[in-house]
Amino acid sequence: MPQDRSTALCGVGQGYERRAQHVKHIFVAVLISFLYQLGTVELRQLRYFVAVAEELHFGRAAARLRMAQPPLSQQIQALERDLGVALLHRTTRRVALTAAGSTLLAHARRLLQQVERAVHTTQRASRGEIAQLAIGFVPSADLDILPRALRLWRKRFPEAELELRSLLPGQQVEALRHVQIQLGLLRLPVDDRGLVVKSIQRELLMAALPRRHPLARGPRVRISDLKSDAMILFPRRTAPGQYDWLLTTCRRAGYAPRVLHETESLQTNLGLVAAGLGVSLLPASIRNLRRVGVVYRPLAPPAPWVEMAVAYRREERSEMVHAFLGVLRKAIRPSHGGASGSLSRASWPGRQPGSEKRARL
Hints:
Layout: H1 3-38, H2 43-55, H3 58-65, H4 69-83, E1 88-90, E2 95-97, H5 99-126, E3 132-137, H6 145-156, E4 161-166, H7 169-177, E5 183-187, E6 195-210, E7 230-233, H8 240-252, E8 258-262, H9 266-274, E9 280-283, E10 294-298, E11 305-313, H10 319-331
Parallel strand pairs: 3-4, 3-5, 7-8
Antiparallel strand pairs: 1-2, 5-11, 6-9, 6-10, 6-11
């Protein structure tokens, strides 16, 4: 036979052999998974095998496992019988892994690591350190209090999953009622007997004006000075308490505001102001959101305050809610924007009986 033909046939033979080995490895992996699901292969057998495979010595593996050598040998033999393959080459001098043994070692290590992670995760979840928490927040909350709370939360609970939903106050109340969220960050006033509502931060109200507005030239604005301007607000249905409070604030200043535009989006609100279509009254933290064509001016004393609150169901007992309230309490601090806040431990869910009282609105 010509040499090149012989070489070619040899290469083909080696290719078939490699494919056969690959198929065998896949078969062993699938068989291991199948038998484990059936309960034929036990975790302790896999631990025993990994120890032997890493030590390549039954005596050292037995010492590592703190067990006698004969029971260890019997368990490895039982594992080989269950799988129907030889996992080890045994001689009087040495122990070596077969191809099937090498395949099992990789899968067994991965499986044992997954089990260890599952146990660790379960234990952390029982301590309230890992789980999923759904939080609703008004758009203005992510200008100040929410980012500070999230930074502290991520440091303390890096593996906890958070679902953040931008919702206006009325939407949050509905979401809390239907257990779609567990916590809400919203603006007061809110009146719902099924919820615990606790004020956490107070901010001064500010005027958002078009850049070319005559009042933008001065350092402060009186609410009564805005009586000739169209007011841009959110729809009443989204936060009836806050909507009515703003209208009452204007009436106390001597005029009934002309609400020309209503929008649920804070960005759209500022866009309408920038276009010169009206003015708006917003919390002091709005200064953290810069918008071309918009200027912010504080209101002349006595300027009204707006309040941010945290809300949760009265029957809430979640450890995750408890943990987030603790983080929120640490995140609250006075800011340069005239904000202040407090969240007492007595308001946490699962605390002293009878301590879950609604905040004074």
